[in-house]
Specification:
Length: 64
Amino acid sequence: MKLLNGQEIRQYLNISTTVFYKFKRAGMPYHQLPEGRAYYLADEVEDWLKEAGFHKDTVAVWNK
């Protein structure tokens, strides 16, 4: 289980910064560390995306 920062989760999911912030506003799960940064668990985020009705298409882009 690896914690990813915002840039790393965007790269992992192959999404733009705009899409990343849309996902955050929609309730994407994260973990807050004492110094205040948000970190993400890739498996947890992928599960959330699937439950929210998103899926990866053939070019690994998340669509609804």
